[in-house]
Amino acid sequence: LNHILSMIETKDLRAQSGLVYCNAKKDVAWLGEQLRKAGHSAAEFHADISQKEEVLRKWSIGETPIIVATG
């Protein structure tokens, strides 16, 4: 978590979008929550997410610049 937050904040990536891949759905949920707690707009994306199209739409227009997904 600290490494990801450091990359976002020290490289001033707040104005950009990106994907963060995790190995397990539980890690996706945890990391998404931690990023939001740190003040970042992040959404989870994995096989059990029912609103995949909405998550991708918000990501594509920059509303949710970070997607945390299973690989």
Q: How does this model look, in words?
A:
The protein is α/β, with parallel strands linked by helices. Helices cover 44% and strands 20% of the residues. The protein has three helices and three strands; from the N terminus they run H-E-H-E-H-E. It has helices at 2-10, 25-37, 52-60; strands at 18-22, 42-45, 66-70. The chain has a three-stranded parallel beta sheet with strand order 1-3-2, with helices on both faces. Helix 3 (52-60) links the parallel strand 2 (42-45) and strand 3. The longest helix has 13 residues, at 25-37. The model has no long low-confidence stretch (mean pLDDT 90).
Q: Number of helical runs? A: 3
What is the number of strand segments? 3
Strand order of the biggest β-sheet: 1-3-2
Q: Which percent range describes the beta-strand content?
A: 15-25%
Uncertain runs with pLDDT below 50, 5 residues or more? none
Assign the structural class, choosing from mainly alpha, mainly beta, alpha/beta, alpha+beta, or little secondary structure: alpha/beta
What's the gyration radius in Å? Answer: 11 Å
Multimer state: single chain
What helical percentage do the residues reach?
40-55%
H/E element sequence: HEHEHE
Shape: globular
**Main sheet specs:** 3 strands, parallel
What is the rounded distance between the termini?
Answer: 18 Å
Mean pLDDT: 90
Which features characterize this protein?
single chain; three-stranded parallel sheet; 20% strand; 3 strands
Q: Summary?
A:
The protein has 71 residues and is an alpha/beta fold.
List the helices and strands and how they pair.
Blueprint lengths: L1 H9 L7 E5 L2 H13 L4 E4 L6 H9 L5 E5 L1
Parallel strand pairs: 1-3, 2-3
